[in-house]
Each structure stands twice: as C-alpha cells, then as structure tokens.
Write a structure and sequence with these properties.
Number of domains: 2
Structural class: mainly alpha
Shape: extended
Number of helices: 5
Low-confidence stretches: none
Length: about 130
C-alpha cells in the first residue's frame, strides 16, 4: 500500500463519490468519463470538485477531445483489442501456463496478420 499512484483510469461505472474519494485519498488523478447526462455534484469535498472539473472540461471541449487529452482513448483501444482476442474463443483452452502463453501469442499473431491484410498500402506518387 506504499506505492505511488499517478492516475486511475476506469469506465463510467466507477463515477461514484466513493470511488472518486478513494482515488483522491491516494493522491491520484481520476480519469473517469462522466455519463452524457451527468450533473454536477455539490461542491462539498475534494472529490466532488475534481469530478466537476472533469465535467466542465468534457462539456467545454467535447468527449472525444477529453479522451485524447487525458489518454483515455488508449484504454478504449485496449478494450477493443481484447474483444478481438475473445472472438477467437471465450476462454483459453490450454491448462499449462507455457501452453496458455503460446496460445495467446498465436491469437495475437493472427490478429496482427488480419490487421495487416485490412490496412491500405500508401505509396507516394511523383
């Protein structure tokens, strides 16, 4: 429990007073998107002030810019990749840890190959 935490990234389900308070107590920054119909909280604690600042930034700059600015889009990309990985099967078939690692490596190699097939080649003309 002595580790320093710089930022906590979570989805909208963790946009609660309890979660924000726990993050502030550890002196970390919360990167949690506010629901589209989110309302400001009463300005009675540091967690509420931090969340209201996020809400103001999201409304002023837009959700897409806020996600890029805070780095939240990286989390979205990782979740999308995990979804692709799960499309090969909901679970890992191997029981041995070495074989599990090999199975995941094969799935990742296949995903990379599929991405390469679907990516356009750009050639400079002139």
């Amino acid at each position: 429990m002595d580790e320093d935490i710089g930022a906590v990234t979570a989805d909208g389900a963790y946009d609660t007073r309890r979660c924000h308070s726990a993050i502030i107590a550890r002196a970390a920054t919360a990167i949690i998107p506010i629901h589209k119909n989110g309302r400001p909280w009463k300005d009675d604690c540091p967690a509420a002030r931090a969340r209201n600042e996020t809400l103001r930034a999201t409304r002023h700059y837009g959700r897409a810019f806020w996600k890029r600015w805070t780095g939240y889009h990286v989390r979205s990309r990782a979740e999308a990749r995990m979804r692709c990985l799960k499309s090969f099967g909901e679970r890992i078939a191997a029981r041995d840890p070495d074989r599990q690692t090999a199975e995941i490596h094969i799935c990742v190699a296949l995903m990379n190959r599929f991405n390469a097939l679907g990516t356009a080649e750009i050639v400079r003309v002139g």
